[in-house]
Model the fold of this input.
Amino acid sequence: MAMNHQAFVFDHNAFIKELSNILEKALRTNESHELIDFIDKNILSLKDPIEGEALDFDWRKIIHTADISQYGDLALTKYYDPKRNIGVGYDWMLLSDFILEKFTIDDSLLLGMPFGLSENHFNPGLMGSYFQSPEQVQWNAEIIKTLSKEQLELLPQIVLLKRMFLKALALKKGLYITF
Done:
């Protein structure tokens, strides 16, 4: 099954300030009440993570599996717009191989860092979820800038990656990456 690399400009700093402790605690304890309270209190700022439509007070009907990652998936939409995917799409593995060859670094350039405990990461789609802070975005943008024009022409998808970083940089935001 091909995996679609989706990336969203993400208000990482607000996430850290408002939700990260609640989500981390929920992942650690498997208790969802604080996360559900967060959703209820912020309902007017949340969206369906798949369709991107505003949530209403009947939001529980769209939860297929009542688990922490599903609740977190809804809560996270306060910090990004699910309708504005700027990821590199299905060719991400080709791009990953290219980056590994050129820079001998891992997938953190394309992905970021998982959130949560090593034994229980936030992973609503069960295919991976990653975060990049504004500082990581800036660092990664600098790495991409080191590619020469000739190297950029070797792989057109690198332009998508560069554009992804530049959009987040222009807004001084991070990235949320998921599949």
